[in-house]
């Protein structure tokens, strides 16, 4: 029996790779001769870099860059030499989790460090970048990244703009002549799990700004500033990308990736599965076990378990989801190829008690599932 273990990470508890191995240990206790196929996955958000490196064997590099507030930090990125491809996770340089609650202010945070990671990849000879969008602390429309790559963003007095999205309201001149010439031949694919436009009620500022410290007044200010940035970008580029699906991802980084880097935006789980060779592993599997921290109705928007289930359904391979919790609307996932879903907790427990036990709980659930699976088979 071949079992494919392909979870996402369990936030604040286990990486996708550690979760997959915990699942496998439990299954092997129940069926010592089963064959475990390990395939850590992610949907493009935080943790996707770790999953990609684990799944592809890419090299991990560290680079000193600026964090979202301009402070030096160490950011990881991946290098797949055979593919001449760099894996860049926005959250490594400009992530929300790196900021304390009182430091989160979407008006001033910047993606400058992401641009520095692009430069490191270009210095390595990258011909392609897989950009992982999600977990950002920023709302600057990718302006910081552009500055790091050589663009000039100037106010009416010819002075460089201050970092952050709010300063874009004062943008008077956008010079792209200084952009690193190597970008012209760089292929960029961006992994996203949202389809929001840049502006408006579903835009970057309105939907994602509040979790990054933006007040209702800040949201209006940022939306106006991004709109002004989009106006000037359209004049300079000759095309307007503000309404394209995914433009609002990661505080407008989806907009910058498409407009200035010519990026193709794709659902994160599809890109991750492709890089991990998921289709080949699925062909061998009799059963698929996936999971993540929470399964609910929102998971249908492109979360890992649903991407896995939809792919497995085409081969009529059963899929079991193990989640830290099952939230409102999780039953809709049963219409997307999920055979069954289970919560991990073995009794009433606080999140603070459950997190340290995640590996143990995954092992126990998988052992029970495989015992039941074996009993049900002829």
UniProtKB/TrEMBL annotation:
Signal peptide: none annotated. One of its GO terms (molecular function) is glycerate kinase activity. Belongs to the glycerate kinase type-1 family. The lineage of its organism: Bacteria, Pseudomonadati, Pseudomonadota, Gammaproteobacteria, Oceanospirillales. InterPro entries: Glyc_kinase_flavodox-like_fold (IPR018193), Glycerate_kinase (IPR004381), Glycerate_kinase_RE-like (IPR018197), Glycerate_kinase_sf (IPR036129). Keywords: Kinase, Transferase. This is Glycerate kinase. The keyword Transferase applies.
């Amino acid at each position: 029996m071949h079992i494919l273990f392909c979870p996402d990470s369990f936030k604040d508890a286990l990486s996708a790779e550690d979760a997959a191995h915990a699942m496998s240990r439990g299954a092997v206790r129940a069926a010592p001769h089963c064959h475990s196929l390990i395939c850590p996955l992610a949907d493009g958000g935080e943790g996707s870099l770790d999953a990609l490196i684990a799944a592809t064997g890419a090299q991990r590099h560290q680079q000193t860059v600026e964090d979202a507030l301009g402070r030096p930090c160490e950011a990881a990125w991946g290098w797949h030499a055979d593919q001449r491809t760099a894996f860049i996770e926005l959250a490594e340089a400009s992530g929300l989790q790196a900021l304390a609650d009182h430091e989160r202010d979407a008006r001033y945070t910047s993606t400058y460090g992401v641009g520095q990671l692009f430069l490191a990849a270009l210095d390595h000879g990258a011909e392609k970048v897989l950009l992982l969008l999600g977990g950002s602390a920023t709302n600057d429309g990718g302006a910081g990244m552009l500055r790091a790559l050589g663009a000039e963003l100037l106010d009416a007095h010819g002075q460089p703009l201050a970092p952050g999205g709010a300063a874009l309201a004062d943008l008077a001149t956008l010079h792209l002549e200084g952009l690193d010439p190597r970008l012209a031949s760089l292929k960029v694919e961006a992994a996203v799990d949202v389809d929001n436009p840049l502006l408006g009620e579903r835009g970057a500022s309105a939907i994602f700004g509040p979790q990054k410290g933006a007040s209702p007044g800040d949201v209006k200010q940022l939306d106006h500033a991004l709109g002004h940035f989009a106006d000037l970008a359209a004049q300079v580029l000759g095309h307007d990308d503000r309404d394209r699906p995914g433009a609002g991802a990661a505080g407008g980084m989806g907009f910058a990736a498409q407009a200035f880097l010519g990026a193709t935006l794709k659902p994160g789980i599809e890109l991750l599965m492709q890089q991990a060779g998921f289709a080949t592993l699925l062909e061998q599997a009799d059963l698929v076990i996936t999971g993540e921290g929470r399964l609910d109705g929102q998971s249908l928007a492109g979360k890992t378990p649903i991407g896995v289930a939809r792919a497995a359904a085409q081969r009529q391979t059963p899929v079991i989801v193990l989640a830290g919790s099952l939230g409102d609307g999780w039953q809709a996932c049963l219409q997307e190829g999920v055979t069954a879903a289970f919560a991990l907790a073995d009794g009433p427990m606080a999140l603070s008690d459950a997190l340290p036990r995640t590996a143990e709980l995954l092992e126990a659930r998988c052992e029970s599932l495989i015992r039941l699976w074996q009993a049900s088979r002829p």
